[in-house]
Amino acid sequence: MKVPIRARRLRVRAALIVVVTAAALFSTATAATADGNHGRDGHHDRGHETSAIVFNGEGNNLNAYTPTPPFRKQTVIHTRADDPRGLDINGQICFFPDGSRRFVAGEDTGQPNPPQGWGIFQLHGDRVGSLSATEVAKLTPTYQPSVDNAENYGCGFLSHGRVLTTDVGNQATGTGDGQLIVWFPPFRFGANHYCKVATDIATAGGIHVDGHDRVYVASARAPTAGIWRYTDLPTSDTAAGGCGAKDATGAPLATSVHRSLFITADPHAATPNAIVASGHGTFYVSSVFTGTIAEYDRRGTFLRTILAPPAGDMLGAKPYSTGTPLGIGVGPDGSIYYADIGIVISSGGIGPGNDTGTVRRIRFVHGVPQAPQTMDTALAFPDGIGILTPRAHQDND
């Protein structure tokens, strides 16, 4: 089995120091219920729009799925270990909002030489089975000195063509040194212009950007555990653009950072790993260790649990029966797609098992989340989700 450095030390192992806490907190979480549609009946029943395509990075491959049964699958980019022309793809997958069918994904082929980073790709084809992708640029920053191997994960977009990324930093112990970075066009292979917004995020994860350029970043462990909201990000890598400082590596750093805690880690999402907009003014947050997806309103207030393991279901030699969600995405019909990393408990500790990952879908009927449908099984370290939709749907809250 191919187990790259990145996969062996995957960020979802997150803070082992919070596992006991997460387990205790989970005892207060509830299973998905039909209570409180919060005035959203019908929002999730907009028909089956099969033109969407669901993407997942798994085993260093990039896979694509049709969004409805029978969930046809194509490997769009093969890992370098299987194909000498292949690339190693990881993390969140983000399509540019300009309709160009370009996307960003973690790309760490050959790490540490060259270092891991994020590839920008051009997608070709319009249906699963006929897709291909060409890498057109590579974003590679400096990383903070870390106990763990630096892990590329999150991505997102600001106005004026700016791209955002997060890298995880120390995953389980040690100082929080995950980074949030803004990149400035044009993008190329080689040197690119960027500015680091934060270098102190403890186990940094997924990114969401709303219609007002407010940036939401997940942090899975203390002291920054929760969802943080950043505003007024740099407009260039110069002092005039808000980037007049330097970090410990000598890279450009934002002069001042405007951030606030938007969602505090709670029993419903004890180890926040990713955040995505629902499409109707709320947010979904995944939590790997508790096996949950929770919904929050636009003020960051908990609304309900969308996914939780059934009563009595315990994490052990096998994952929760409903999985351990890391990456999440929302389709144009409101369905949630999630990458289940397949966390198990073994003699080696807590982490992804051998090919225990899955990709799953949660449908809604009259606003009520249904039991998850399994799209694919026996996967190695599926971690990120990306969805290509026929139209952008971004919350403008």
Compose a concise summary of this entry.
With 397 residues, the protein is mainly beta.
Secondary-structure blueprint:
Layout (H helix, E strand, L loop, with lengths): L4 H4 L10 H8 L26 E6 L2 E5 L7 E5 L11 E7 L6 E6 L9 E8 L7 E8 L12 E6 L5 E5 L10 E7 L8 E9 L2 E6 L5 E5 L6 E6 L13 E2 L5 E2 L4 E7 L7 E6 L5 E5 L4 E5 L5 E6 L17 E6 L5 E5 L2 E4 L2 E4 L4 E6 L1 E2 L2 E2 L3 E7 L4 E5 L9
Antiparallel strand pairs: 1-2, 1-30, 2-3, 4-5, 5-6, 6-7, 8-9, 9-10, 10-11, 12-13, 13-14, 14-17, 15-16, 18-19, 19-20, 20-21, 22-23, 23-26, 24-25, 26-29, 27-28
Detailed description of the structure:
The structure is a single chain. This protein is mainly beta and 397 residues long. It has helices spanning 5-8, 19-26, and strands spanning 53-58, 61-65, 73-77, 89-95, 102-107, 117-124, 132-139, 152-157, 163-167, 178-184, 193-201, 204-209, 215-219, 226-231, 245-246, 252-253, 258-264, 272-277, 283-287, 292-296, 302-307, 325-330, 336-340, 343-346, 349-352, 357-362, 364-365, 368-369, 373-379, 384-388. A 4-stranded antiparallel sheet has the order 3-2-1-30, with no helix packed on it. Mean pLDDT is 87; it is low at 1-50 and 392-396.
